[in-house]
Write a structure and sequence with these properties.
- The chain has 454 residues and is α/β, with parallel strands linked by helices.
- The protein has a single domain, classed as Alpha-Beta Barrel (TIM Barrel).
- It has an eight-stranded parallel β-barrel with strand order 1-2-3-4-5-7-12-13, surrounded by five helices. Strands 6-8-9 form a three-stranded mixed sheet, covered by helices on one side. Strands 10-11 form a two-stranded antiparallel sheet.
- Strand 10 and strand 11 form a beta hairpin.
- The relative contact order is 0.15.
Length: 454
């Protein structure tokens, strides 16, 4: 089997058994057409319109322009031989103000996308919420408000009513951890709140929204429903230090356990050390922990922590670079340690009794690449994906029930606060023309999929 140009490996990562293969995108990051089709405004529209919030001043417009060029994306998904394509549905396209009747043009767009995927032999696997909170919902309290969970359930019912006859597999909410930690706790992403530990109720309201949406989707005939959360394997800078091990426990609780435990065990971990209790009402935990059909993990990198410096530091850990690890285009923020994915998947398998099948719902890396349309020999990305697919295989061999792997991303896209400066795609996108050019990693991933089925 011949490697594409730029591929540093000539072999294909083997797995102990066949699994399903996917690639992912998200609506705000690829659709463009922010003023078309009756679309409303989300918190990310506010963010990109605020000077200084996006590194390169870009606004996600037009970007890949998938609102008009969805058929090209379907063809790319089919060309890879994907089992499933993970895309997201924009709340503001379906329900412009976050309440009230649906927007027919928005639902028509997603209905065409679903039909074309099915015709191409690719199973649609939509995400109902990938961070695009409608502005009126934000102004009414956003995820700090319990009412947002009810509004999300209403929106879910509108989507399920239109697409549920053809779509049977659903993600409810993407990365509630990042919404809480980056969106509400430290203000690094939209909506840009700086609440620190007062942001914790947003975790409960998102999980409640997941539970309510699960009921709505199952009532509409869904076969499989789950949440896609960002998880990380937490490591101490100094393994022999009790203080660093305590820092690991604190960060693991905030990033991993308060989002996974309620779904998988029906209870929150002890939050007394942070001076908070979740705003749980009667029946909430039963709603949140309805037996999930799968548990999905977005994984990019481990997190190394150490004991905090300064006596008055309210945060019980410091995040530091991972010693000796190579990095992606994000630098020290995103170390490359594939074995950390194995450790995380095995840890989940050992930590949670009766764990449902696992899905790796995002995994990928950004590296510097040209802006203009070009065939990119992205050896660094191939090496990253190769290592992490092998890590999935090692986790399966160790007893983890992983049934699906998903590359982020199918195409280059708008990377949130980093704008168009970071490229994750298997397919290069010229953001001036929206021209798509498959990279070497696209051909490599196609061969990985073929090899796993052989």
């Amino acid at each position: 089997m011949t490697a594409p140009a730029g591929d540093t490996r000539t072999d294909i990562p083997g797995l102990p058994r066949p699994i399903r293969w996917s690639a992912a995108t998200a609506a705000f990051q690829i659709e463009g057409a922010r003023d078309e089709g009756g679309r409303g405004r989300s918190v990310w529209d506010l963010w990109v319109q605020t000077p200084g919030k996006v590194i390169d001043g870009s606004t996600a417009e037009p970007g890949p322009d998938s609102y008009h060029r969805w058929a090209e994306d379907v063809a790319l998904a089919a060309g890879l031989g994907l089992d499933r394509y993970r895309f997201s549905i924009s709340w503001t396209r379906v329900q412009p103000d976050g309440t009230g009747p649906s927007n027919p043009a928005g639902l028509d767009y997603y209905s065409r996308l679903v039909d074309d995927l099915l015709a191409a032999g690719v199973t649609p696997f939509p995400t109902l919420y990938h961070w695009d909170l409608p502005v009126p919902i934000h102004e009414a309290g956003g995820w700090c408000s319990r009412d947002t969970a009810a509004r999300f359930a209403d929106y879910t019912a509108l989507v399920a009513d239109r697409l549920g006859d053809r779509v049977k597999n659903w993600y409810t909410i993407n990365e509630p951890a990042m919404t809480t930690l980056q969106g509400y706790a430290v203000g690094a992403l939209a909506p840009g709140e700086f609440l620190l530990f007062d942001a914790l109720p947003t975790a409960h309201h998102q999980l409640l929204a997941h539970g309510l949406a699960t009921r709505a989707l199952r009532a509409a005939g869904a076969d499989a429903v789950g949440v896609a959360n960002n998880h990380t394997h937490v490591r101490p800078l100094n393994p022999e230090s009790p203080a660093d091990r305590s820092a690991v426990d604190a960060y693991d609780l905030l990033h991993n356990r308060i989002f996974a435990d309620p779904i998988l065990t029906g209870a929150y971990p002890d939050l007394s050390a942070f001076g908070h209790e979740m705003p749980v009402r009667e029946g909430d935990m039963e709603t949140i922990c309805q037996a999930p059909d799968f548990y999905a993990v977005n994984f990019y990198n481990p997190t190394t922590v150490t004991a905090p410096t300064g006596e008055d530091n309210p945060i019980p850990f410091d995040i530091v670079p991972t010693p000796g690890a190579p990095v992606t285009g994000f630098g020290d923020e995103w170390p490359i340690v594939p074995e950390a994915l194995t450790a995380l998947l095995v840890d989940f398998t050992e930590r949670y009794r009766d764990l449902p099948p696992l899905i790796v719902s995002e995994n990928g890396a950004s590296f510097p690449e040209p802006d203009r349309a070009a065939r990119v020999d992205d050896a660094d990305r191939i090496s990253y994906l190769d290592g992490h697919i092998r890590a999935v295989g090692a986790a399966i061999a160790a007893g983890a029930d992983v049934e699906e792997y998903t590359v982020w991303s199918l195409i280059d896209n708008f990377e949130w606060a980093d704008g168009f400066t970071q490229r994750f795609g298997l397919v290069h996108v010229d953001f001036d023309t929206a021209e798509r050019t498959p990279k070497a990693s696209y051909d490599w991933y196609r061969r990985v999929i073929e090899g796993n089925r052989a």
